[in-house]
What we know:
The protein is an all-beta fold. It is built from no helices and 26 strands.
Amino acid sequence: LSGLAFDSSPVTKTTVLIQPVGGTYFVGNPFSLSVNAGGTAIGYQWLKNSNSIAGATADIFTITNAVTTNSGNYQVLITNSAGSVTSIVAAISVLAPPVTVIYLDTMGNSAAALNGRVPDTTGTTPWTAAATWNTDGTEAAVTSTGLAFLPFTPQPGRIYTLSADIENFDTSGNNWTALGFANGSSVNGQWHTAGNNPVGWFLARGDNTTVNQAFIGPNTGNGQAFNYAPTTMTHYQIIFDTTPSSSANWTFTYLANGTVYTPATRFGGSGPTITTVGFGNQGPVTGYVKNFELS
C-alpha cells in the first residue's frame, strides 16, 4: 500500500552467551545470578528447582540476605517470539556459618579465687579479676565492687555473642552487675569509671523499680533503658556484629532470656576499641555469674 512502511527484520531466536554460575555462601550474605543472552525482544524467568520464582524476570537475580532454604538448583528461561532457551543449572548452597567458642567458663571448678584461674571448659588464658570475686564450684560470686576480664580483640567479618547467667537481687537500685566488652583490665573500681572505657555493655539490676540499661559506650555513652526486671537468674546476651566494612557501622544487640530488648545499634565515630571481655559488680550487693561464654 502506498504511504505505509513495514519492518521486515526477522526476530532472532535468543541464545545464551554467558551462563549463570553457582556458588557456596553463608547465611546472611547476599548472592546474585546473572545471564547474558543474545537475540531481540528478550524475556527472562528465573527458576529454582524447576519452579518459577515470582518477580524474578530480569537478567540478574539477587538474594540480599541468604537463608539455608535458598539452597537449590537455579536456571533462567529466556524467551522471545522466535522461541525459548533454558540456561544450564547453577547450584547454590547456603550454609550456616561455623561457630567457634573462644571462652566458656561454667564456673564449675573447685572453690577458689577467680583471679589467675583458667576457664574450666574453653580457653587457656587466665582471668584477671579483683580479689572480691571467688567461685564455689558452681558460680562466681562477689559481695562488693570488683571486675573480672579475659583478653579479646575482635576481628572484622564476624558475629560475636557474649553471654552469661547473672543473678542480682539487690532492692535498692544503686547496685548492679555488668557484662560487656572493654578496653582495659583494671579490676579495682567501678565498671564504667575504672579507666577501661567499656563499650557494648549493660548493667543488670535486681530491683523492679529501676530499669536495667544497655550502653554502646565508651563508658555510659548512648545509654538506653533495657526495660527488663529479673526475678530469677537470667541469661543475658550481647551480639556484636563486625561484618560491616566500616567499624563505625559495627553494631551491638542486647537480649535477656532470648528476647531482644535493645535492637542492633551502630557504634559510630571511628569504631570501638576493644581488648577485653568481662563482668563486674557495683556496690555492696551479692552478684552471681555462671556460664560465661564468648563465641
